[in-house]
Amino acid sequence: MDKVVSVIGIDISKRYFQLHGATADGEPVLRRKLTRSKVLTFLGGQPACRVVMEVCASAHHWGRMILGLGHEVRLIPPVYVKPYVKRQKNDANDAGAIVEAAQRPTMRFVTVRTEEEQARSVLFRSRGLLVQQRTQTINALRGHLAEFGLVVPLGIHNVERLEEAFVAREEHFPAPAPPAIRLLIERIGDLNVEIDELDREIRRIVRDDEQLARLMTIPGVGELTAMAVHTFAPPMESFRNGRHFAAWVGLTPRESSTGGRQRLGRITKMGQRDIRRLLYLGATAVISSAIRRKNVTDPWLARMLNEKPRKVVAVALANRMARIIWAVTVKGESYRAPERQPPLTAAQQGCGSDQ
Which of 177, 165, 12 is nearest to 78 (CA)? Predict the structure, then answer.
């Protein structure tokens, strides 16, 4: 009697895919190496089962295609598969390790993204790449002009001053330098135009999405943060509570406890990097605005600023924002601010020092 395949692990590559099938009790019954053009044909002839892959390039595309064949698809982060690789690393062992990991009852999986979510991811990542290129170009321009004694304060808003200083002294530069420097200046301008175009598209998406609009009612959550949460985070219903979502983002302390003694360190920085970075930047913006206006209306934030360094408060506020995002999304309600707090006292106005 043929044994029924319960789970199939697939190790994805550019051309060849390695398949490993096992029964419900983990016994290997299938090992097959296929070209990418034959994978769907083969899986289409298999009885409905669980198909598991590592999260990697094109994994979400294959997940959607295999879901269309009637199979259940699960994606596993590679870091959770690595402990199950036996001895030598090769495609066959990797596929077997995927099956072993998938059969653990406590394993955590990644939700397959829809085409719409994938498209938003492309928009978000493309903007991030252009911003990175702009930063690199500005740094290069600063470095080159500093060698000729042209220095202005840091910050993207001071780039125009740097350009004006170069134009004023361009004729004093040696012959080979000005064309290259003008090219960098023009590239910065082109990148600004391209980034603004993507920003307009992001604003259009956020404006037309009711759920994203609710997220933006949270102080410190802007268009980019709302879109990043909606694009990269799994469904909020998959988290038991807001603390679990904050832990997934990586905004909880790293723990190294033993013998009943608890040791907590810096945040884990695990989970989705873009969401974590944007939440922290949003938290620092909220704190800076409150300190500058000397008007902290949130009782919790006022107490934290009075007791902790500003950077520690920023991480705590980012964690709190993550939990609020979970509550707003799950309950389908807009953010409700806490009761107003009296203005800062003279002693509190000097708080927030990082020393």
Answer: 12
Q: What is the pLDDT of residue 1?
A: 46
Q: Are 271 and 249 in contact (CB under 8 A)?
A: yes
- From 185, 50, 148, 147, select the one nearest 104 (Cα to Cα): 50
Alpha-carbon Rg for the chain in angstroms: 26
Q: How far apart are CA 51 and CA 32, in angstroms?
A: 14
| Euclidean distance between CA atoms 302 and 298, whole angstroms | 6
Beta strand 72-76 with 50-54: parallel, antiparallel or unpaired?
parallel
Q: What is the pTM of this model?
A: 0.81
Q: What is the DSSP letter of 170?
A: G
pLDDT of residue 322: 95
**Tokens linked to 252:** 């909880």
Q: Please, what's the b/e burial string for 201-213 (b: 16 or more CB within 10 A of its CB; e: otherwise)?
A: ebeebbeeeeebe
Q: Is residue 235 within 8 Å of residue 349, measured between CB atoms?
A: no
Considering only CA atoms, which of 81, 67, 46 is closest in space to residue 111? 67
Q: What is the DSSP letter of 258?
A: B
Q: How far apart are CA 304 and CA 121, in angstroms?
A: 35
Which of 120-124, 148-152, 295-299 is the most confident on average? Answer: 120-124
Alpha-carbon distance values, 129 to 27, 57, 124, 140, 203 (Å): 45, 17, 9, 16, 18
Rounded-to-10 torsion of CA 345, 351, 352, 353: 160
Lowest mean pLDDT among 71-80, 210-219, 288-297, 333-342: 333-342
